[in-house]
């Protein structure tokens, strides 16, 4: 089967919205499908994308070019700025439409609602929804009506779209994780608290920093590592300085995949305090696969993976007090950390590997392609 995956941001940005489509491409290609990934042609590419290309020679990468306005705007701003993101997809619309017509795909998978409106009506299409929009927008309403099938990465995301747009039934297919890559290793736990992810306001890192400030009174040598980058980094660094915690908190930037497992395994507690309207965090699955004890929020899609007290701990969104309490509880209880980590790994192996996710996705693709054929 010839499958197109349209994700222009994958060449210049690394986030869950880029990693997931690339992993879908990888595992669908392993099943014998002919996969084309279409991305934006840029002067620079992320190390993640370049490595992915080298390791997946059986995937064809097709490059699209911005031909109209705004091509001088830094590309990463198009991911974090909602308006600029929409503009990028509008700019690429005609080229994408012509590209799909020429390629004659059996099905195209898109991962952003404004991208879906550019795919020709003659091409079968599946739209994957990664989060819930803050407000109702016309372009999203059009997108959910023109695709052949809607897929959400969590029940929370599906419910949010159904409520906003009165959509047709949305299929829920959870993302997966490479459980062979993210594994537990015996190593010294020289990091007390680890955060991994984009540094944007809704990821809630500011509440983690305030929680650490409450903890250092009793744990003056607390070691905290914040991995990732983003537009909110400067504000987080200023907050760290204002609270005089530079010796406790280190910002280390983006952590490549080949180092990520090592950081998870070195950490006693992984804290993911996001309050964004999204599905199940990729970093939550990665950390759980490495048998980490995870503290995350009881909102959005996270509670679809975490059973509080069994394979992780849940806190209220934006609650530095609860985050501090849960961290302290885990730092003082090695056996609880180990129990949570082992249970989390078992849950990954049961339901959250990429092989299981792609099994469900492959079945859905066959249903879409075979309709009216």
Automatic annotation (TrEMBL):
It comes from the Bacteria. GO terms for molecular function: glycosyltransferase activity. Residues 14-179 form the Glycosyltransferase subfamily 4-like N-terminal domain. InterPro entries: Glyco_trans_1, Glyco_trans_4-like_N. CDD domains: GT4_PimA-like. SUPFAM superfamilies: UDP-Glycosyltransferase/glycogen phosphorylase. Residues 183-346 form the Glycosyl transferase family domain. It holds the Pfam family Glycos_transf_1. This is Glycosyl transferase family 1 domain-containing protein.
